[in-house]
Design a protein that fits this description.
Elements lengths: L11 E5 L2 E5 L12 H10 L4 E4 L10 H14 L3 E4 L1 E2 L3 H7 L7 E4 L14 H6 L4 E4 L2 H14 L3 E3 L5 H10 L4 E5 L1 H5 L13 H10 L6 E2 L8 H5 L11 H10 L5 H18 L14 E5 L4 E2 L18 E2 L2 E7 L2 E5 L2 E2 L16
Parallel strand pairs: 2-3, 3-4, 5-6, 6-7, 7-8, 8-9, 9-10
Antiparallel strand pairs: 1-11, 11-14, 12-13, 14-15, 15-16
The structure holds N-carbamoyl-L-aspartate (NCD) and zinc ion (3 copies).
Length: 357
């Protein structure tokens, strides 16, 4: 039996229900960066069965009409399953959010790709809707969002936690409504790669690793594809949906994360977050057969030229990992096998009454 990453070493692992809850699929007027088709095929190649799409697109998913257009596009083009987030940045989008069946209301409290930063003074109003809120924020913004989450009993998800002080803040105030995520780049990388929030120092990374599976609920890629040209001009973001699982399984195999915490951040907690939104998700008897098969028999260097994403570049380029995704199964069907998506790879929205599309 596979009990502790440090010891037994089977060559193939079944990873139950891998889901990536932070993915920028772009498309619309940014098809040069990524399309729904390329980004979701990249997800399957990375062993990911479902993604949460981020709304800072051009135009942003910040009104009912664009949301419907996004849902239509995703329903046609997505190769893996998905949920849609909705962006609130002003009074109009706030009023629209009330009537949309969204996953999270995404609020940007700081500058990043696109400029959909929430208008000053509106944060409390967002929480008054009592719909789940996900935030991009610095320490100060996190503190404020936590306050409103408690005041209005509104679920809050804190994106890409990157600093020790942020982990400590969240640990002090965490309750069952507050969740947060860390990204592989903030866990594994140092230096000054262009990404928001910026990479932290060794002290920050130690805090993130120590909090995985306790204060930090999930690991998500924050897949943020740009063209090489845009990256050369300093665009923020990393093409990460294909490296998330190989990196985390490598950490498991090397004993850098316990099986218990790996299982928590990659399966139990994502499932719990989805279920808190009324979405039935998760591997097991009576559940959905979503899983990927990962080969851990040999190490290889990450080669972004082989990415299915349009963004074929990565700060992880050349890094040795010990986990290769060989198959990805969604709803009991093989969607990805031996390097290519199959003809069955057709995504559907995750829903409370999930059935075959
Ligand atoms: C993201 C993007 O490019 O959309 N960029 C990033 O550096 N993470 C936006 C974001 O998640 O902040
Ligand atoms: Zn249609
Ligand atoms: Zn962000
Ligand atoms: Zn992001």
């Amino acid at each position: 039996a596979y009990t502790d990453g440090a010891h037994a070493s089977p060559t193939r692992l079944i990873i139950p229900s891998p889901v990536d809850l932070h993915v920028h699929l772009r498309d619309f007027e940014q098809r040069q960066k990524e399309t729904v088709a390329s980004g979701t095929r990249a997800a399957l190649a990375g062993g990911i069965c479902a993604v949460a799409d981020m709304p800072n697109t051009v135009p942003p998913v910040a009104d009912r009409e664009t949301y419907e257009r996004r849902l239509e596009l995703m329903s046609h083009d997505a190769a893996c399953d998905f949920v849609l987030n909705f962006c609130v940045d002003d009074k109009y989008s706030l009023s629209q959010a009330a009537s949309v069946d969204l996953f999270f209301i995404k609020v940007f409290l700081g500058e990043t790709t696109g400029s959909y930063v929430l208008e000053k003074g509106l944060l409390e109003n967002v929480f008054m809707l009592r719909k789940p809120v996900a935030i991009h924020a610095d320490l100060k913004g996190m503190r404020e969002a936590i306050k409103y989450s408690k005041r209005y009993e509104t679920p809050l998800h804190i994106c890409h936690v990157s600093r020790r002080e942020e982990v400590e803040l969240i640990a002090r105030h965490k309750d069952e409504r507050i969740t947060c995520e860390a990204t592989p780049h903030h866990l594994f990388l140092s230096g000054d790669h262009a990404v928001k929030p910026p990479l932290g120092n060794a002290n920050d990374r130690d805090a993130l690793w120590a909090a995985l599976g306790t204060t930090i609920d999930i690991v998500a890629s924050d897949h943020a594809p740009h063209t090489l040209e845009e990256k050369e001009h300093g665009a923020f973001g990393i093409s990460g949906v294909e490296t998330l699982l190989p990196l985390m399984v490598t950490a498991l195999v090397r004993g850098e994360i316990s099986f218990k915490h790996f299982y928590a951040v990659m399966h139990e907690n994502p499932k719990r977050i989805l279920r808190s939104h009324g979405i039935e998700y998760g591997f097991g008897v009576g559940g959905r057969a979503d899983f990927s098969i990962v080969d851990t028999s040999e190490s290889y260097a990450i080669d972004p030229a082989l990415f299915h994403s349009k963004a074929k570049h990565s700060p992880f380029s050349g890094m040795e990992v010990e986990a290769r995704v060989v198959e990805t199964w969604v709803r009991g069907k093989r969607f990805f096998s031996n390097g290519a998506c199959t003809n069955e790879a057709r995504g559907a929205p995750l829903s409370a009454f999930s059935k075959e599309p």
